[in-house]
Structure formats: structure tokens, C-alpha cells
Design goal:
By secondary structure, chain A is an all-alpha fold. Helices cover 81% and strands 0% of the residues of chain A. Chain B has two domains: 511 residues, Up-down Bundle (Cytochrome C Oxidase, Chain A); 71 residues, no CATH class. Chain B has a two-stranded antiparallel ribbon. Classes of the chains: A mainly alpha, B mainly alpha.
Chain lengths: 206, 617
């Protein structure tokens, strides 16, 4: 009901993402969805942990991984999480242009991360670490690749949202969409922190 | 066309019921062929290969394409009404849920037409389900079909969680929610945490089969036990996803037809939540014989037996609800009462199987087959029959025939016990499960014959039920709002079938069994919590249908990418992933359209609502 009033006056409430029942439903549902995603990645992590030493004739994690590259990718992705926070803060101050800029930077950093990952995979395959080489390689590409696919999806999604923001402006309909996309982006980051630890650091230690 | 675009949860409920019922018949037909083959020793009704396919498809179809959808049918039709909501949280996503289930199920069953049917069991253990032992496309149909259907289940679960948390009527606190809604709530939570594990399992299976992955290939460092863990961390909660809604239905039906408040309501809620939690802690009891070691076996053994405690609480509460009640033996109530001893029998054998040392003896014998059919058919299916008879007038505006309903009950109930009771003994006598035939002189002949006769009796019961449906739908729609006259919960306070907007005015809930409370206070209707006004409704949309159709096409594209076709053009199309790409394009294109064009919906005006209520404006 309150959303009607705000529309009528052309004034946006302080939390436009939570102003309507639809918006609140969207956010709650998305938190639940992330719960499901946690199980999804949890299962992939378990499979990886069970198989990470089973390298058959292929290379081991210690021989493959180069931490400087991974550290750079980590830096890019974690920074993009911060810029997405700045976008949400701009949303609460109703600065649409600032919001779009921060979201744009988020997408840019995400794309750089993805570029590094593609280079990394390309490099490994040339070293003879193919998807079908060993149980380790299969579970590695599955886990890290799933995360990469999530990043790619997020990039497309947020890009689309920026376009919508320019076309429709900040409303009680677009605000929850952007809020939910930022939740998604943080989630991807959290998963990456675990991948960095479990896959790369533990892999390097052996 | 109306049905392809609908986003009305009550219509989607009916769609689920039709599709689920259809797959139930297919699964039942497969079961009858299995029992026909096993009717006597060394019969050759079907070949060994066909038998394996029948067994696999029977299990998969019944769990994923019959039981789950019929549960979703009742949840869709009833849960929003029980909590006094105008709609579900995501009507659009709800439609996606139905269509992905439908197309996933269709894809799985296309295997019969192609003649390359999954045959590695519904559990699809490796290496049996791997490319070495299940060649061709067989298990790809399983992996991709279930993957698509699983999306539908997952989004359906999230939809119900949000609906129940955010959209309850004023006064409908959690501890005033009807038991069926509670069970739908816990079930949805289980779906949320179990189905992503299945999704990963099916993806790893596809990776191994299609892209030469090594998750489960021992030669390259993979392990089949990993598959068992992934499968059962989904698969065990799945059986609670199935049975909890049945518990909810039984609670509603028994209290209605005893004209009594459900005994021990809060302990029922607690027991439901506890069963849901423990359901996740016991998956490895399916794997006692894989060599997990004594510590793991003991822990999983104890955790499994613990589930008997909350389940026992429920059983006693149902009995105490009936105690001193004015019991009406309607068809729905017969199914509910028949459920109680039957489910207890299934539970008892469950505790027997939970004892790890004894399990080494029962493992993979007909004893296990008897156990899980006692809980899933004797529990869930009786519960669903009860729920369908109970809510049929609410869904269709006309009741099922009571006499035919009782006939269904008795033939099905007796047939069921004939079929599965003797299988306990067959198991103890050493008959292994999944065998397509057996030799004469092992002492199994008579019991197998009895079992098969029982199975056909269940088939007769099902046919009577279908006759009942046809008969009832040919009758005029005369069901009253409170069809059973003893209705206790909110769905009975509105006309049958419910109008598109459910409640003309959102009701004010003043206690548990909200409608019964008003009736006892001498009110004919619920007290409204708001004045009559225009009601906002979501617009129908064809996009959910196309999103699912896209996945269906993409599924074939991926499956047949490395197939050898006679036709060069076809081969090119598939091997360059054109078909897969087109399918994904349809899906993502529909998602894009949905995202770009906001659905403004429409309003149902006051005049129209008043007309429905018989008031002249």
C-alpha cells in the first residue's frame, strides 16, 4: 500500500528494495536460494576434497598452481564485492548515476577476473592438465568452473540491470533486483574465498 | 491455451495433479509388468534387459514424476488457502516449476520411444551407471531428465517457503498454522537443501558420461562410493520430503473427521521439524555395507533409530485425536486411518534395517523392498489418496463419490498388504531384490504369486479411482464451501472451487483451527481484516512454458552431441551444439524478456468480487 503513495508523490522510500511485498519476497527468496547454492558448492567442495590427491598420471596441484596469478584474481574479485557495496549505498542515497558507475566497475573487475581464469585454464590444459586427465583434474575444473560460470552469469545479469536502470530509473521494481544481484555477487566472492583456501592454498601445501 | 499460460496456483495444482496422475499410471503399469514377470519361477514375460529398464523407470517415475508432483498439486491447491493468502509469492516462478517438471519427465520417458532406456536402478550406482556398463544414451535420459525436473522442484520449494513466511493473513502466527501447511513448510526446507546435492550428482554423472570425466572412474582415481554419498545426501532427505506432507494430510483429515482439535499440536510441529532435521543426518544408513567402518556405522545407526521418537509422537497424537471423537468413516478418513497401522509396520522394519549388523543380512533383499513400499505406498500413497478425496471438492467444486471411494480404499488397501507383506518373508528367505527371475524349488513360488495377485488388486483399486474421477466430473458442480461441514481450516471458509483471488477480503485469524473457532463463536464466515477493494493479480504468461521447452530441446542437444546419425545434416546440427544452443537461446531469451518487461498485472474490481459473493452492486 505504501508503495502506491510513494509512486503518487514520486518520492522513493529510503529502502526502495524493501518497500513492496514483491520486493521483500524477492529478497527473502533469494537468501533461501543462496542457501541452496551453498549446498551445491558444498557438494562440489566435498567431491573435490575426496578426489584432490587422486592425480592418476596427471600433474599434482603443487606442480600446477601459480599463486601470484591467483592472488591477483582474488584481489580483483574481492574488490568488486566492495564496489557493489558502494553501489547499494549510492542506491540508498538515490544517486542513480553513481550507482551505475559502481555497478559498471563491479562488472569490469568481474570480467578481468574471468579473463584471468580463462587464461589459467588454457595454460593448465597446455601443461597436460585436461578435464579428463584424472579425478583431481575433473573435480578441479568442475568446482572452479562452476564458480566461473556463476561469475559469467553475474556479469551478464548486472550488465542487464545497468541497462534497465538507465531505461526505467530507480523504482521499487528495479531496486530489489539490484539488491538481489549484489547479494549474489557477495555470495560468489565468499565461495571464491573458500576456493582460494581449499583448492589453491591447500593444493600448494600438498 | 489458458492452461499453458496460467499462473494461478490453484490451476497449477490441477496441472500437477493431472501430470502426476498420468506418470503414476505409467509407473504403475511398469510395476505390474515387473510383478507379472515375477509371478512364477522362470517366466519370460519380459527379457532381463527390459526388466532392468522397467525396474529403473518404475522407481524413478514413481518418486520424481508421480509422488512429488501430486504432493506439489495439493500444496499448490491448498497451502495459500490455509494461510489466508491471495496468491503464492512467485506465481510466475510457480508456473516455471510445473513446466520444468513436466518437460523433464517427458524427456525421461522419451527413452522408451527411443528404445534406449535407463537400466541402472533409480539409485544409478557407479560404475553400473557409467558409460562402460550403461552404454548408449540410457542414463543420459536419467541425468538430464531429472536435472530439468529438479529445477522445478527446487523453485517450487523456495516459492512455498517465501509464501508461508511472508504472506500469512493477519493473526496467522506460525503456531496457528494448520499441520498441512507446517509439513509443506518443512518439506520445502528439505527440498531447498537436498535438491542442489542431486543437481551436483547429476552434473557429475553427465560430466563422466559425456565429457570423459573421472569422478567415478576408479582407473583414473575416481570412486563410486562418492556417488553413493552424493546420491544419498539427497536421497535420504527425499523420503522425508515425500512422507512429511502425508503426515500433514493425515493430521488434517483425522482431526476434521473426528470433529476434534488435533491432539498435541505443538508436539506435532516439533516432531515434524525434528524429523526434517534428522532426515539429513542419516544418509549413510544406505551404505552400511560399503565398508565405512564400525564408528560411522554405529553413529548413523543410532541417528536413524532416533527418528522413531518424533514419528512415534505423531502416531500417538493421531490416535489420541480420534480417541473420544465423533469419527466419520468417509473415504478420505478410511485412507487416513488405514495409513496409521500400515505406516507403523513400515517404521518397525525401518528400525530393524537401522541396526547395522542386522542390515548386512537384510541388505539388497526383498525385505528392503517390502520396507520402503510400506512407508512410501502404505504411507505416502495412502496419505495422498486421503488428501485427494478430502480436498477434491475444494479443487473441482464437486465431491468424489463416497461409495466408489470406499471401494477404492478396500481394494487398494487389501491389494497393498497382499503385495508387500509377503515380501518381508521372501527377503528373509533370501530372495534378492532386482532379480528378473528365480528358479523353481526355492520355496518362493507361492509368496511371489500372492504378491503379484495383490499388485493387480491395487491396479483394480486405481481403475475404480479413475472411474470415480470421471463420474464425479460428470456431475453438476454443487460442492459447498464447507463441503464436509466439519471443516476447521481457512480453505473451507471460501466457496468451492476457490475464486481466482482466493479471499474477497483477507480473513482475520483469531486462533488455531481458525474457521472452526469462528463457527463455534456462532459466525458463518471469517471476520475480514480489510474492507473490500480491488485485488491485484499477476498476468498470465507463456514464458514459463517456453523456458522449460528450451531446456528440453537443449537437453537433447547435449545428449546427442556425439551421436552417430545416419543423416549427415542431423549429425552436423547436433555435433556443433546448434540444437543445444537453440534450446538455451529459447530459455535465456525468455528469461531476458521476463527481466526487461515488468509485469504490471491487472486488478479485479469490487463489482466483480461482489457478484461472486452474490451481492448486487
Amino acid at each position: 500500500m505504501s508503495s502506491h503513495d510513494h509512486h503518487a508523490n514520486g518520492v522513493l522510500p529510503h529502502d526502495p528494495e524493501k518497500a513492496t511485498l514483491e520486493g521483500r519476497n524477492k529478497i527473502l527468496g533469494f537468501w533461501l536460494f543462496l542457501g541452496g547454492e551453498t549446498v551445491l558448492f558444498g557438494t562440489l567442495f566435498s567431491a573435490f576434497l575426496a578426489l584432490r590427491h587422486n592425480v592418476a598420471d596427471g600433474k599434482t596441484a603443487q606442480q600446477l598452481f601459480e599463486l601470484p596469478l591467483i592472488a591477483l584474481a582474488t584481489f580483483l574479485l574481492l574488490t568488486s564485492s566492495m564496489t557493489s557495496v558502494l553501489a547499494i549505498q549510492a542506491m540508498h542515497r538515490q544517486k542513480v548515476k553513481e550507482m551505475a558507475i559502481w555497478l559498471g566497475i563491479t562488472v569490469l573487475f568481474g570480467a578481468c577476473f574471468l579473463g584471468l581464469e580463462i587464461y589459467e585454464f588454457y595454460h593448465y590444459v597446455h601443461e597436460g592438465h585436461k578435464f579428463s586427465t584424472s579425478a583431481f583434474s575433473t573435480s578441479f575444473y568442475s568446482l572452479v568452473g562452476f564458480h566461473g560460470a556463476h561469475v559469467a552469469f553475474g556479469i551478464c545479469w548486472i550488465t542487464l540491470l545497468i541497462a534497465q536502470l538507465f531505461r526505467k530509473g530507480l523504482t521499487v521494481v528495479t531496486a530489489p533486483k539490484i539488491y538481489v544481484a549484489s547479494l549474489y555477487w557477495h555470495f560468489i566472492d565468499v565461495v571464491w574465498v573458500f576456493i582460494f583456501t581449499v583448492v589453491y592454498l591447500m593444493g600448494k601445501v600438498g | 491455451m489458458d492452461w499453458l499460460t496460467t499462473v494461478d496456483h490453484k490451476k497449477i495444482g490441477i496441472l500437477y495433479l493431472i501430470a502426476g496422475g498420468f506418470f503414476f499410471l505409467i509407473g504403475g503399469l511398469e510395476a505390474l509388468l515387473i510383478r507379472w514377470q515375477l509371478m512364477g519361477p522362470e517366466k519370460d514375460v519380459v527379457s532381463a534387459e527390459t526388466f532392468n529398464s522397467l525396474l529403473t523407470m518404475h522407481g524413478t517415475t514413481m518418486i520424481f514424476l508421480a509422488a512429488m508432483p501430486v504432493i506439489f498439486a495439493l500444496m499448490n491447491a491448498i497451502v495459500p488457502l490455509q494461510i489466508g493468502a491471495r496468491d503464492v509469492a512467485y506465481p510466475f516462478v510457480n508456473a516455471i516449476g510445473f513446466w520444468t517438471f513436466f518437460f523433464g519427465g517427458l524427456l525421461l520417458n522419451v527413452a522408451w520411444i527411443v528404445g534406449d532406456v535407463p537400466a541402472a536402478g533409480w539409485t544409478a550406482y557407479f560404475p553400473l551407471a557409467g558409460p562402460d556398463f550403461s552404454g548408449g544414451k540410457s542414463m543420459d535420459f536419467y541425468a538430464i531428465g531429472l536435472q530439468i525436473a529438479g529445477i522445478g522442484t527446487l523453485v517450487g520449494g523456495i516459492n512455498f517457503l517465501v509464501t508461508i513466511i511472508n504472506m500469512r493473513a493477519p493473526g496467522m502466527s506460525f503456531m496457528r498454522m494448520p499441520m498441512f501447511t507446517w509439513s509443506a513448510f518443512i518439506t520445502s526446507a528439505l527440498i531447498l537443501f537436498a535438491f542442489p546435492a542431486l543437481a551436483v550428482g547429476l552434473v557429475t554423472m553427465s560430466f563422466d558420461r559425456m565429457f570423459s570425466g573421472n569422478f567415478f572412474v576408479a582407473a583414473n582415481g575416481g570412486t563410486g562410493v562418492l556417488w553413493e554419498h552424493i546420491f544419498w545426501i539427497f536421497g535420504h532427505p527425499e523420503v522425508y520430503i515425500l512422507i512429511l506432507p502425508a503426515f500433514g494430510i493425515i493430521s488434517e483429515v483425522i482431526s476434521t473427521f473426528s470433529r476434534k482439535r488435533l491432539f498435541g499440536y505443538s508436539s506435532m510441529v516439533f516432531a515434524t521439524a525434528l524429523i526434517g532435521f534428522l532426515g539429513f543426518m542419516v544418509w549413510a544408513h544406505h551404505m552400511f555395507t560399503t565398508g565405512l567402518g564400525p564408528v560411522a556405522n554405529s553413529l548413523f545407526s543410532i541417528a536413524t533409530m532416533l527418528i522413531a521418537v518424533p514419528t512415534g509422537i505423531k502416531i500417538f497424537n493421531w490416535i489420541f485425536t480420534m480417541w473420544g471423537g465423533q469419527i466419520r468413516f468417509t473415504a478420505a478418513n478410511l485412507f487416513a486411518i488405514g495409513f496409521i497401522p500400515t505406516f507403523v509396520m513400515g517404521g518397525v522394519t525401518g528400525v530393524m534395517l537401522a541396526a547395522a549388523p542386522a542390515d548386512f543380512q537384510y541388505h539388497d533383499s526383498y525385505f528392503v523392498v517390502a520396507h520402503f513400499h510400506y512407508v512410501i505406498v502404505g504411507g505416502l500413497v495412502l496419505g495422498l489418496f486421503s488428501g485427494v478425496h478430502y480436498w477434491w471438492p475444494k479443487m473441482f467444486g464437486v465431491g468424489l463419490n463416497e461409495m466408489l471411494g470406499k471401494l477404492t480404499f478396500w481394494t487398494f488397501f487389501i491389494g497393498f498388504h497382499l503385495t508387500f507383506f509377503v515380501q518381508h518373508f521372501l527377503g528373509l528367505m533370501g530372495m534378492p531384490r532386482r532379480v528378473f527371475t528365480y528358479l523353481e524349488g526355492l520355496g518362493w513360488d507361492t509368496l511371489n504369486l500372492v504378491s503379484s495377485i495383490g499388485a493387480f488388486a491395487m491396479g483394480v483399486g486405481t481403475i475404480i479411482f479413475i472411474i470415480n474421477i470421471v463420474y464425479s466430473l460428470s456431475q453438476p458442480r454443487t460442492a459447498k464451501g464447507d463441503h464436509w461441514e466439519d471443516g476447521r481450516t481457512l480453505e473451507w471458509s471460501i466457496p468451492s472451487p476457490a475464486p481466482e483471488y482466493n479471499f474477497a477480503q483477507t480473513p482475520l485469524v483469531r486462533g488455531y483451527d481458525a474457521f472452526w473457532k469462528e463457527k463455534m463463536a456462532g459466525n458463518a464466515e471469517m471476520t475480514p481484516a480489510e474492507p473490500i477493494g480491488p485485488i491485484h493479480m499477476p498476468s498470465p504468461s507463456i514464458l514459463p512454458f517456453f523456458m522449460s521447452l528450451g531446456l528440453f530441446i537443449a537437453g537433447f542437444g547435449f545428449m546427442y552431441a556425439e551421436n552417430e546419425f545416419m543423416n549427415a545434416a542431423l549429425a552436423n546440427l547436433f555435433s556443433s551444439y546448434v540444437v543445444a544452443g537453440v534450446g538455451l537461446l529459447i530459455t535465456f531469451g525468455s528469461m531476458f524478456l521476463r527481466s526487461v518487461y515488468d509485469d504490471a498485472g491487472f486488478h479485479i474490481e469490487e463489482d466483480e468480487i461482489n457478484k461472486d459473493r452474490g451481492i448486487k452492486a
